[in-house]
Amino acid sequence: MIQDTTAAHLSHRIDVAQSEARLPSLAAGLVRGGRLVWSHARGTIDGRVTGHEADEHTQYRIGSITKTLVAVVVMRLRDEGALDLTDPFEQHVPGTAIGHVTVAQLLSHGAGLQAETDGPWWERTAGEYWRTLVDQLGLRHPPGRRFHYSNVGYAALGELIARHRGHPWATAVSAELLNPLEMQRTTARPVAPHAHGLAVHPFADVVLAEPEHDAGAMAPAGQLWSTVRDLARWAAFLAGDTGGLLDPDTLAEMRSPLVVDDTPGSPWTAAHGLGVQVWNIEGRRFVGHGGSMPGFLASVRVDVETGDGVVLFTNSTSGLPRSLGTDLLSELTQAEPLPPEPWHVAEGDAEVLDLVGPWYWGPAGFELRAAGDGRLHLRPVDGAGRASRFDACGPDRWVGLDGYFAGEPLHVIRRRDRSVSHLDLASFRFTRTPYDPDADVPGGVDEAGWR
């Protein structure tokens, strides 16, 4: 848990936000080390002074956060070999007008599908069956051309899950994720105690009840309800504590930005991965998702570097302060910064030690370091340029993990006496001195030398 003074400050922040934003109730929680370390709620489930007080066990509708759970089930299917991300949708759900878009494009909102249904506002009207929705599916943009958020795309993914699992998407989410993670208060329909969805009048302190319904085929886009405590467990999942339900490499794949959310006139700060939103805020990378349904707003965000996470709920159609979640995380970091990992002696491989130190690509200086995790870290001396990490994949063979050299081979070229001559990195020659005349430099080195 966090210190009492920190908790009091954070709780006061929620109290002020609930009052100033005129929210019927506001509930929040912070996650650190995979645990809910602080939570606080202000207001009542119906907005009335005498109503039931909200707390960490109160259910709220989480809206599009539902998509993150749907996406994880799809990725589990991929890991099982049931599908490939490059598969056309037609291969798994035949008979639609969008059969040529890929699974990855649907997950990342890069398919170009229409954002909403053709019929009435689906978030406020009773849902339809897939066989009715399928006739409405259409494209607004060429697949792969741009980011275009699509609720309809996740209806399609829900149907894909049902075809493979032999039962509805919600059953798959419960059996494969919610039950193993003990998220028992996350359900498809509200279970008391739950907040009531409300709209707050913009010019008077009165509220209007918003409808609640089963969204039918559109439900995978935003049906689920959850609590601070349950969604905190999901934040820990997105931070890396998957409970063995998803391979860490698959989670990393989901959290990698694929499609940039390009808003004209604004810097690129938001993107979408495979089912999760990605934000770059003042140099800090966050992943998670927002949620919006009539009467409710919700958010889950995780700081990728620290693993700290935040969850927020309110039972109001609008008004949740946009930066509140990241502000709470920043205040936690400032008040109680995480200690760095302790330094310790690592096992040294003599041939790896031959590789560390200064290297040159032509005249440009680099340094290669051996990390305690067994990887090599290459970075420019001046800090700007092509930095990458490498994993060993055989004797004197390495493969790039990120940056410009992700997936590219690094070969260590040794002389007959086993001393290192040079490094061959994706055809670039790295030598111990700038343009070493004794190394195999493509194009050769001018015999006149430096002058």
From TrEMBL:
Any Pfam family matching the protein: Beta-lactamase
Residue ranges constituting the DUF7586 domain according to the UniProt record: 349-432
Gene3D superfamilies referenced in this protein's UniProt entry, alphabetically: DD-peptidase/beta-lactamase superfamily (3.40.710.10)
InterPro entries: AmpC-like, Beta-lactam-related, Beta-lactam/transpept-like, DUF7586
Beta-lactamase-related domain span: 18-321
Domain of life: Bacteria
The protein's name: CubicO group peptidase (Beta-lactamase class C family)
Taxonomic placement: Bacteria, Bacillati, Actinomycetota, Actinomycetes, Jiangellales
